[in-house]
């Protein structure tokens, strides 16, 4: 059964690429092959996140969005790529992120937060049961002419009563300097509400901002300014809205898309960014270069079998014999997500050293 899922999923992804015309690069002959391809969803996969059970690290799930108006959804996959839980329908869910240790009415829970573009809200669900705890959703970009939330990343700060969690939300269209809004997620007697704490984020205006990632340990936010580059800011609003870096401006065929952070240690690792129209990932040093933590130079580019990847996530935790150094999860055309063995990426990085 597993083998048939993988073959069918890959065939669907390749067929989708072929039917999309010349604007898409074909999958390269030397492209990294996924270890697992998930079951197909009804509409259009967009963005994944990885959750590890804090009480049992052998229990790992991938959470992914199925993007469609009125009939979209949020899906939970096991490590074989099988769908084991879902929330449907949602109205055009775009991106998803997860956070650990939220204090919900005296109970510590892990959460998945999703942008629901059709309702101009973010949705909050407990993990892994995907129970809604937001009373129908938290409105975002209220009072703005352009709302339409797309990208999301969660920033966590340790707190004596549980973790303080903030959502950084992007939208389809926004003004440079205030394209992203940041919200405190607050428990209100067992229901999560939001309070805006910051507006920030430069935008070059060429396309849009969707992919956002937070490095909780180092305290940074990265986001893809499609067709321009990757911006870097402090995650904590108390540190101000100074832009720390823009990188990758000349390294991409066209769009800068999904961002994943792989942690080799507390302070080292890699930033992976989807080179969407080249069906590859560009890899940068998480720690920057010697003497300058905000200088991120391209290490290598790795071609993948995922077609036109929008969203990605990575984890360095060993996950059984298939993923001994962790994995990268990438969205692919064909309504699927790919699970890649991290060691293949590490081998490519090592070859460049």
From TrEMBL:
SUPFAM superfamilies: Thermostable phytase (3-phytase). InterPro entries: 6-blade_b-propeller_TolB-like, B-propeller_Phytase. It holds the Pfam family Phytase. Residues 22-349 form the BPP domain. Keywords: Signal. Gene3D superfamilies: TolB, C-terminal domain (2.120.10.30). It comes from the Bacteria. Residues 1-25 form the signal peptide. Transmembrane segments: none annotated. The keyword Lipid metabolism does not apply. This is Phytase.
